[in-house]
Amino acid sequence: MWSFENDPEFQPELDWIDTFVRERVQPLDYLLGSQWNIHDPEFIRLVRPLQAEVKERGLWACHLGPELGGKGYGQLKLALMNEKFGMSRFGPIVFGCQAPDSGNAEILAHYGTDEQKETFLHPLLANEIVSCFSMTEPQGGADPLIFTAHAEPDGDEWVINGEKWFASEADHAAFFILMVVTDPDAENPYRRMSMFIVPRDLPGIENIKNYGVYGEPDESHAHLRFNNVRVPAENMLGGPGDAFVVAQVRLGGGRMHHAMRTLAQATRAFEMICERVVSRETKGEQLSQKQLVQEKIADSWVELRQFRLLILETAWLADQGNDWKAIRKNVSAVKATMPKLLHDISSRALHLHGSLGLTHEMPFAEWVIHSFHVGLADGPTEVHKVVVAKEVLRDIKPAEGMFPSYHKVEMTRRAHELYDAS
Ligand SMILES: Cc1cc2nc3c(=O)[nH]c(=O)nc-3n(C[C@H](O)[C@H](O)[C@H](O)COP(=O)(O)OP(=O)(O)OC[C@H]3O[C@@H](n4cnc5c(N)ncnc54)[C@H](O)[C@@H]3O)c2cc1C
């Protein structure tokens, strides 16, 4: 049955989330620093009670299966919920589904031993600790095949050496999920790396420098060096050479939720545009009455609806088969569209607010920069567009002759062949 309506029993939950995020969570964006600084006394004072309310309502960590305390909601419902969470920087952490912890939890749930689940997964799910996913290296992130940080076996331990780059929230994290080379000579290059749980306090982990990104409250993206860091053999997640397979566990749903949160940010920019253009006058009329302004409103509204439908269709497809590989064209299309949408609508918002739009009092410059962030993290836009194109062209057959199969002469000949005798 084709329908754009929500389940009647789910809609009240969405409405509750919407009001709760707008009225109670959004104000935190103006009061607190990093969302991952969970030991900050102000975080404890302001965020913990909100998290308790979410738990009470039964909406905590809904991306998880029921066996881990989640609702086992499908991707469509999760997408709709993330559209609400994304209205505030603190939305995801108040609802127990912030990156990279949500994805890291999925990996641990999938590959961790019972003991690792006890030590790392359960406190992570309770937001008693936070974590870091560390894959990128200084010489390049878009091509994991040039990574060199490595681990070598030594008795019942692995010894890790090398550098990692842009490890977000490394300083707040209790542990890293770290991707390193374990078999540099493996014939299949995608079998050269393995994934490890690395507790943050192990000797030999050096933070060379934290890098800041415009608009973020802290410098939180670490350039790390691992100097003979020893981890027990059981800290390997999956088997040797499984790093790419393990990494995939976190990416499908994660990209979709991120897209809905980005849509929410672009929607906020749009709402701000709308308020501004009906509030400001120039040359004797409201900005909203200028046709060139109206074009920006119309374009933005259409782009938001188009993107939302693309995400929801992809979420729906995931719910039908739950096979991320089969729908990777759709997921990559979502990932590749997300930065442009946020960039274009935030830029229009900045522009339409005039000089005020450029100031630190408005969020637009930060959101424009954020559009570049979402175009880089989890793979640059170009790489995702290549996936879309390859998948689209995968089963297309070349024309048999000199001219296209749809050449008018040939189409007419075939039409005659079909109907002349009848
Ligand atoms: C805010 C932020 C947070 C991040 N957090 C983390 C984290 O927690 N953990 C982690 O491991 N990494 C993290 N990253 C790193 C992110 O995954 C990398 O930035 C990304 O993979 C690109 O790698 P790079 O920055 O080295 O760029 P490069 O690989 O040098 O690419 C630079 C540019 O080259 C172009 N390009 C690259 N490849 C292709 C291609 N195949 N075809 C055409 N053009 C191409 C693109 O324009 C690309 O933007 C984060 C990045 C940002 C911006």
Keywords:
single chain, 422 residues, alpha+beta, four-stranded mixed beta sheet, four-stranded antiparallel beta sheet, 48% helix, globular, binds flavin-adenine dinucleotide
Largest sheet: 4 strands, mixed
Runs in which pLDDT lies below 50 for 5 or more consecutive residues are: none
**Structural class by secondary-structure content:** alpha+beta
C-alpha termini separation = 40 Å
Evaluate the radius of gyration: 24 Å
Shape: globular
Helix content: 40-55%
- Strand and helix order: HHHHHHEEEEEEEEHEEHHHHHH
Beta percentage is 15-25%
Bound molecules: flavin-adenine dinucleotide
Average residue-wise pLDDT: 95
Strand order of the largest sheet: 1-4-5-8
Tally of separate helices? 13
Number of strands: 10
Q: How would you describe the overall organization of this protein?
A:
It catalyses: a 2,3-saturated acyl-CoA + A = a 2,3-dehydroacyl-CoA + AH2. Keywords: FAD, Flavoprotein, Oxidoreductase, Plasmid. Residues 132-229 form the Acyl-CoA oxidase/dehydrogenase middle domain. It holds the Pfam family Acyl-CoA_dh_N. One of its GO terms (molecular function) is acyl-CoA dehydrogenase activity. This protein is 48% helix and 16% strand. The chain has 422 residues and is of the alpha+beta class. Strands 1-4-5-8 form a four-stranded mixed β-sheet. The chain has a four-stranded antiparallel β-sheet with strand order 2-3-7-6, with no helix packed on it. It has a two-stranded antiparallel ribbon with strand order 9-10. The mean pLDDT is 95.
Secondary-structure blueprint of this entry?
Blueprint: H1 11-25, H2 41-57, H3 75-85, H4 91-94, H5 101-111, H6 114-125, E1 130-134, E2 150-154, E3 157-168, E4 173-181, E5 193-199, E6 205-212, E7 219-232, E8 236-237, H7 243-277, E9 281-282, E10 285-286, H8 291-321, H9 328-352, H10 354-358, H11 364-376, H12 381-393, H13 408-419
Helix pairs in contact: 1-3, 3-7, 3-8, 5-6, 5-7, 7-8, 7-9, 7-11, 8-9, 9-11, 9-12
The structure holds flavin-adenine dinucleotide.
Pfam families: Acyl-CoA_dh_1 (PF00441), Acyl-CoA_dh_M (PF02770), Acyl-CoA_dh_N (PF02771)
GO molecular function: acyl-CoA dehydrogenase activity; flavin adenine dinucleotide binding
Domain Acyl-CoA dehydrogenase/oxidase C-terminal: 244-392
